[in-house]
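Notes to self after the Tuesday call (sharing in case useful).
The group wants a holo model before anyone commits to mutagenesis around the pocket. I volunteered. Ligand is NAP. Logging inputs and output together so the record is complete.
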Amino acid sequence: MAGTASVDTFASELVPRFADQGYDQESVALRREWLERKTESRLNHIGSFSVPSEEMKGNIENSVGTAQVPLGIAGPLLVNGLHARGRFYVPLATTEGALVRSYERGMVLLTRAGGVDTRIHVDENCVAPAFFFGDVGEAHDFGNNLLSHFSEIRSEAEATTKHGRLLRLEPLVEGRNVIVAFHYFTGDAHGMNMIVKATDRACGWIVANLGAKGYHIFSGFESEKRASAVLFAGGKGKKVTAGTLVPAELLKAYVRAVPAQFVSLWQHTMLGHMQAHSVGYNGHFANGLAAMFIACGQDVGNLPNCSVGITNFEATPSGDLYASVTLPSLNVATVGGGTGSGTARECLAILGCEGPTQAPKLTEIVAATLLAGELSFAAAIINGELVMAHETYGRNRPAAGDPRAQYK
Ligand code: NAP
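Result:
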């Protein structure tokens, strides 16, 4: 039949498999060579890496090497948090020219202003399975009785983890279905593997003992890897704030703007955010988050929920600017996921954030970094410098001979 390969032919299309999933150097090289032949490409850079390929197990399948992203450093950034205290140099992995220089400018301003105050308000992660019942009466009764079984459900969930702690359950009835938000403390881990496993076991107990006919482990209500308004209530990741009183004379000296211009920009761009029905208000949280996440081995899939948040610029009676950021659902980790090896481990070491007990410190540094980015980005818009900055540091200008040159 046209367009249908035989089973034998199709097998040669599949990515080669090896014993033990093929994480040894030889298997990775064989897989890469197969890909080079298949796609008629040369993969010299992908094949040049220093991390032992065996360490990739648990983070990637069908490995052919590594992707390389340029890494810059921005600082000093003075942070006056409860967990992060002192001056930091922040690693940022990006291909957006002008981004590191922009964050650096904001960091220098904030450091000269006395540093960034940071506080963590909520430290949780969440999974929200959906349970189904025969009719609305059964769903209603389950929703009403669920919390009386909290200690049994907690025992089941916590049997699968040493560090995870089930903090609370929040039932939400819809027709004959009930979504239950399971909120956990996950220590220094991001925790999704940890708490999905714990919740799955607890769900099995609920089906066996509380009359649910079945469940789906994700309902969507947890907003994992998506932006939504429910994130502002807290409970999906860490809620963290960062703020600094920036004296007017420093604003003038470092970013050539006055407090009233920041407040005016805030008002005008708030109107745009409202008309776009944006979830929250910020200039470019996603930029700093993506660059730090790639550098520090965080799960970039969480950028949609992590970049929900609010930037605020307030003029003070003293004629200065109070600038702050609020991130209600930041997922960062210093244990597990992609944090344990290679460049990610080294970038965490630059921040003094590698390993156990360090996740709150990393959380505060991320928030302070984003505040720096918001101030610098706002100043660039106020001064009409955005195009110039990208022209200077970016790749806006195609080199002679580049086919894009004709569109100049
Ligand atoms: P993980 O690497 O699977 O597990 C980390 C483990 O480290 C924890 O379960 C914990 O074991 C242990 N641990 C040791 N010291 C710890 C400490 N100080 N604090 C906390 N835990 C400590 O990572 P994860 O954080 O659970 O999962 C993160 C990854 O999940 C993400 O990067 C993403 O790739 C993936 N993910 C999975 C799903 C899913 O549906 N499963 C969804 C989204 C993302 P104990 O539990 O035994 O204490």
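Two things stood out.
The chain has 13 helices and eleven strands.
The mean pLDDT is 94.
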